[in-house]
Amino acid sequence: MDAKAGDLDAPHSMGTTIIGVTYNGGVVLGADSRTSTGMYVANRASDKITQLTDNVYLCRSGSAADSQIVSDYVRYFLHQHTIQLGQPATVKIAANLVRLLSYNNKNMLQTGLIIGGWDKYEGGKIFGIPLGGTILELPFAIGGSGSSYLYGFFDQVWKEGMTREEAEQLVVKAVSLAIARDGASGGVVRTVTINSEGVTRKFYPGDTLPLWHEELEPQNSLLDILSAPSPDPMVS
Amino acid sequence: MNSVDSKPATSSLIGSEADSQRTLYPYVTGTSVVGIKYKDGILLAADMGGSYGSTLRYKSVERLKPVGKHSLIGGSGEISDFQEIMRYLDDLILSDNMWDDGNSLGPKEVHNYLTRIMYNRRNKFNPLWNSLVLGGVKNGQKYLGTVNMIGVHYEDNHVATGFGNHLARPLLRDEWHENLTFEEGVILLEKCMRVLLYRDRSAVNKLQIAKITEEGVTISPPYALKTFWNFSAFENPTLGAEGSW
Q1: Is A158 an interface residue toward B (CB < 8 Å)?
Q2: Residue contact A132–B26, C-beta within 8 A
Q3: How far is Cα B103 from Cα A157, in angstroms, rounded to an integer?
Q4: What pLDDT score does A207 carry?
Q5: Measured between CB atoms, does B14 come within 8 Å of chain A?
Q6: Model confidence over A117-166: pLDDT tens digits?
Q7: Is A107 close to B21, i.e. CB distance below 8 A?
Q8: Which cellular component, as a GO term, is one annotated location (chain B) (predicted)?
Q9: Could you tell me which of B107, B119, B104 has the C-alpha nearest to residue B66?
Q10: Is B184 exposed, middle or buried (0-12, 13-18, 19+ CB in 10 A)?
Q11: Per-residue pLDDT reduced to its tens digit, A44-64
Q12: Predicted TM-score of the model (pTM)
């Protein structure tokens, strides 16, 4: 295939929408599932929420390779740290390990990350680590190309101390809105909820998500529409 | 004393490779910092914005930090580099305390340390992409200085970084005088910050003012400034010339 046909040799990049939100008792991480190589969707069901330890997870955006390698190294370091410490690592420590890699290799890496987890000292925490390696502890974080469409949304709907259900619904709605407008985001919405009781993964396939402006209810076929008793489906 | 270049005793992945790293451009940046001397010490002001290019991405970034007992630092530019500078300073102050000799580093010494770091990184074509304001009081002596990513450093009665150089310093040149009271100082700084809010695209309306005196450091809680738009010329700007702005 020549270069014009979707640039199949472009580096794998997760355009992405990633979100991390704190709620009353823990955190909810959310992401879309599209990995693109230029214009082609290389993986339509990726899992961008990666485990670092039992209690800390990472949302990856930007270069797929860079974010995977950073998460692999941090998982490796955290594993050793946990053995030495004799108890689960804190979210802050995990986030700072990510920061060290991101900051010290800033010229070579192109990945924005959101760390979320729960530990017994500080409870649920979200850390944002954008390009450059700045570390920021935040009540909620959004990242990836799709996040551009969510700044206004979060400015309006965010509130402290949501319940678990409210937080999960907010994350699903937000990722779904971003998918609607960002070509680099798509597929399914995945969420991971972390609290004192443990970790829960949820999966929301595209057809379970709400419809937004100018989106239509998916049908099996035109033939179903034609055979259904509705007026003038073939109006020109 | 710790040197910036010493290899940490960890994996080379976590420490930087000295020759392959050059900061080419900043990502998350803070805008102006403004500082003045006043009767009892130093006042610093900075907003809490962390911009990501043209997006005002983070709005609660603390850019004013205490350094030891006698100094205050304000950082503009790349936030990750400012965070790294804070780590160097925390190490510096820790080492200073460990001497346990009754002496502690004053603002002039801290400013000099920062200048060396910034200038040395600049010489290696790998700058810390920041402009810093360093203020403090030790033994009754007030000190206010600035240093930027190329190592240019100086001290003065009033300093500013970034847009503040163009918008705040003229105001300070006109209205600053020796022995400003705390109230006068705050009003002057707020005047500068308001102009910056009107005219700097990367300013956000959430700021902190920090004070340092012989007694110690106080950093205000975040607050917002009122702005004024109620002018007839603003309501009808094209009255005299339709189609203009």
Answers
A1: no
A2: yes
A3: 52
A4: 85
A5: yes
A6: 999 999 999 999 999 999 999 999 999 999 999 999 999 999 999 999 99
A7: yes
A8: nucleus
A9: B107
A10: middle
A11: 999 999 999 999 999 999 999
A12: 0.87
Closest residue of B to A108, CA-based? B21
Do B80 and A101 lie within an 8 Å CB cutoff? Answer: no
In this complex, the residue of A77, A107, A134 whose CB is nearest that of residue B80 is A134
Asked if residue A108 has pLDDT above 50, the reply is yes
* Interchain contact B125–A (C-beta under 8 A): no
Nearest chain A CA: its distance from B138 CA (Å):
32
CB contact under 8 A, B14 and A97: yes
Q: Each residue of A6-36: pLDDT tens digit?
A: 455 655 665 899 999 999 999 999 999 999 8
Q: Tell me if B83 and A106 make a contact (CB, 8 A cut-off).
A: no
ipTM over 0.90: no
pLDDT at site B1:
45
